[in-house]
Amino acid sequence: MISTGRRQKADKPNPVDVHVGSRVRLRRTLLGMSQEKLGDAIGLTFQQVQKYERGANRIGASRLYDLARVLDVPVAYFFEELADCSVSGGSSEHATEPFQSNPMMKRETLELVRAYLRITDPQIKRRLFELAKALAAFSGPAAID
Q1: Check: CATH 3.50.90.10 for 12-83?
Q2: How far apart (Å, rounded) are the C-alpha atoms in residues 45 and 60?
Q3: C-alpha pair distances (Å), 67 with each of 72, 83, 95, 116, 142
Q4: Does the pLDDT value for residue 118 go beyond 50?
Q5: Is the pLDDT of residue 97 over 80?
Q6: Of the candidates 54, 31, 47, 20, which has an alpha carbon nearest to the alpha carbon of residue 39?
Q7: Rg of the chain's alpha carbons, rounded to an integer?
Q8: What global pTM score does this model have?
Q9: Domain ranges in the chain?
Q10: Residues 21, 59: contact at Cβ < 8 Å?
């Protein structure tokens, strides 16, 4: 059977759609914007934004342009860090790859970054940075789960 790049309802989302959606979520969260507020800004419901962020629905070019404008990033931002192997034209060769959790997508990480960015005193920022590095070194080898 020839793959058309389309998927049936039971199929998993395309890895590129999932990646683009996760980048939308990352930027929205870093800005402290709710799904509802983002949806209002581009004329969608929060449920539609949710589907985009999960990769369940593919984002069209004009909608991606609107998202880039509202989130104040270039369109290319949504494709940054996209592994070359993810671009497979919809083949099923990646169906058996296990999902790798991205620590940058965890709410705790995003909230930490947002809090850090709100600190206006450069000296305090530097001290916090040094403290985090010292704590990381003290806790042993990096364990990203």
Answers
A1: no
A2: 16
A3: 8, 22, 28, 25, 34
A4: yes
A5: no
A6: 47
A7: 18
A8: 0.61
A9: 12-83, 101-140
A10: yes
